[in-house]
Amino acid sequence: MQIAIVIPVDLWEDDSEGVMTAWLFNSGDEVDEGDLLAEVMVEKAQYEIIAPSAGVLTIVKHEDEVVIKGAIIATLDA
Amino acid sequence: MTIDCTRCLLSLTVEAGLAAEQALLESICAGERDAAVLAWQPSDRALVMPLRYQRSARFPAVCKALHQQRWPIMFRLTGGEPVPQSPQVINVAMVRRCRLGEPGVDFEWAYLQMGSPWCAWLQAQGVAGADLGPVSAAYCDGRFNVRIQGRKLVGTAQRWRRVRHSSDMAVLVHGAMQFDGDPLDLVTVVNDFQAGIDAPRRFLAERHIALREAIPDFQPQAIGVLLASYPAAGVNSEFSRTSVPV
After folding, report:
1. ipTM for the assembly
2. Cβ of A44 and B142 within 8 Å?
């Protein structure tokens, strides 16, 4: 089963764009539910992206790429 | 000894101050408290930045060069760009538990929670022209600096983390204010770093202001009045016994 990791739409209220500032894992890594996967920054506010479940990570949006709310930034194959 | 924590300024190494802020955020995530505020003044100095700067190919060399100039590089949780920390700086960190999705609760709300009392505190001391906004050519610029007459006094940044076993969020809002010395001293360190990693931007000292330019007799302990204006309870005594009661 593949799970999409999405930037939650409630992370910020307006239509600001964020930037993927860090991935703490690489594509192909196995992660556990609750692991801190990535950081997204908007307006000098860093948001943590947590693994919603365990699985093998595939990164879609890489470091320094611009992202919007609701964007798929990675997938997890459970 | 019981300390009135909302009226204290801690003297901490930069490393200890950053660790205290991280512990504060973690305490919100662990459900130990819903809000708190912490003020600290570095007892040493460092150039502090988000972890992403480590990716620069030139980072190891500039890190070594700055270390030799007694400006070690350290990393922080909050976003933004490199910021010098020194005994000329006062930091205020506020943590809150909140629920994203509720009307008005987002990064702008959090910045206003930190910045608006700061402006009111300055105005109460007779400082004219205190407001929030961007400052072009200032280092670590953002839309929510505390400004005096358009010059950057306080830089602000945030970190958001999910509260465990909850849909709530914990937010750490941080403000760093140079209160003493010449802004050129700190701007020079940031520009040296920029040059070292071959980044094109340079920053201008005249776009910054140290508080003592506006309030010549300011004493760091007076920050307690600002702390008391925040709704969050103080927690300074948990991190050090070297706090200075106002």
Report:
1. 0.92
2. yes
